[in-house]
């Protein structure tokens, strides 16, 4: 190709490119003129036909609830229904931005609608025709009950005055009943009714936005008149729960309730170092997808709403109090028979008959002797004992703040009678909740420092802001030596007690204590032969990482706290497996049960 020819080709290309630039620039100038410079003039011209200003709600989506690993336990979607007003369906006169008028026929609009909702124009037209055939005055015919947000907005953009929309909020719980008692549920309008859905609604709740615009007489949106206030989705509530561990615990406790023919059961797992609740499972439970399928009494959480006398589990707290006060050592001893009447007239008895034994503090815990603990307890004043009970959390709800959570009750010390003076040493004459007992053992396992229990890790707002729950500061309740020694005593309970074989976990040192609480009768006193049983385990005892507690309400196959032993063994085994805790490398130091 000659140089002259090449120059000519380049010149033609440049001219053509310049022409394109001029044309595009012309369109851009015209667009700016219509939508910016002379927008009001165009608006006035078209608004004169209608004067209609419309506002549509843009709906935000309720936030999700996840476990500690991000597994979704609750989520929401917003779908939309769309419906015709058949009596208003007609052709629409449309005025273009350049003032040219044209008619948008119902046939054209129905084709546009069909393309958005995945139907043919004929099918769309048939919806309206059938409605009018049934009732010539019909004002309602459903187009679709399941539109996505994008389909809703595309239909809205058509600006058809005979189409209206309704949001359909849908809340789903993918794991079904897993953590159902904790998650709670919402009503058909998306209003929270129970559990964390209600307690943390400020995190999960969405803020609706709006889309405002003006319409011409043809019902279509006038360009440049749209004003949008965006919707804000709810935040993500992240829990401390481990969904897999929670699932296992729920299956296990349901089986144990059936095995022991109990009314109800629960199991909690708390991380010692942080106070994080890794599982809080109970049976009966509720599936938040269908709460009406459960009895009303089963839709809340008994873990937080049930109070009981902790019984022998709080003998460990008496021991820790005495050790912290320097009043005893593990080998300090008292002489105690199975039934005794004290100088003040109070009568105390053990759960089994035995002659007078010279119990060490260790032995008193191993045999769970009420009489021996009563005698040990007298080594500190009532005021001191009451103060320690309060410091361990009795009478104060945990930081979890679950809806309906009870605080338990401790009688003011100046109102203690002769029996209360002794009963408080072995876990009676005051009430607690399951989380309070677990927190007390977390304190012992954590070297005497009580970490606030918590079920929520954080709330992450739609803009990414992370808000952590406000928790109490850690509190030193007893000295480290007293706490560690108490765990050592409880390890001897695990190895020398009557349930040693039933609670043992191969390869691991564990510390345990049972509790059998009498249940109050309606007219006063206690019910005969029925109990609220419990057992706690600290694993591993040589390096405490988790506290596990199991309760059974009125077991009938085995009525004592021995009913809870199989469940504790299963729960501790699963926790150690789940978190891959290394086996213990040392063996426990046996302590004498009786004075030598």
Describe the protein's topology.
Elements: H1 3-37, H2 39-50, E1 52-58, E2 65-66, E3 72-84, E4 92-95, E5 101-104, H3 106-117, H4 121-134, E6 141-147, H5 149-157, E7 163-172, H6 180-183, H7 195-199, H8 201-204, E8 209-215, E9 227-229, E10 236-239, H9 243-259, E11 264-271, E12 277-283, H10 302-305, H11 315-324, E13 333-336, E14 339-341, E15 347-349, E16 357-360, H12 361-366, H13 370-377, H14 382-391, E17 409-410, H15 418-423, E18 430-431, H16 434-445, E19 449-450, E20 456-460, E21 466-467, E22 475-476, H17 480-496, H18 500-503, E23 511-520, E24 526-539, E25 546-553, H19 565-578
Parallel strand pairs: 2-10
Antiparallel strand pairs: 1-8, 2-3, 3-6, 3-7, 4-5, 8-9, 10-20, 11-12, 11-25, 13-16, 14-15, 17-18, 19-22, 20-21, 23-24, 24-25
Helix pairs in contact: 3-4, 9-19, 11-17
